[in-house]
Amino acid sequence: MNAQERFAALGAQPFRQVDSRSTGLRSSFASLANVFRHREMLSLLIRRDLKSKYKDSALGFVWTLVRPLTQLVIYYVVIGKFLRAAEGIPDFAIYVFTGLTAYGLFSETVSSATQSIVGNSGLIKKVSLPREVFPLASVGSALFNFSIQLGILLVASLVLGVFPFSIELLYAIPATLLVLVYATALGLLLSAVNVYLRDIGYLMEVVLLVLLWASPVVYSWSMAKGVLGDSIALEVYTNNPVTLAVLGFQRAFWIAGHEGADYPDNLLLRMAIAFVIGLVLLLVSQRVFSRLQGNFAQEL
Question: How far apart are alpha carbons 188 and 217 in whole angstroms?
Answer without folding.
Answer: 26
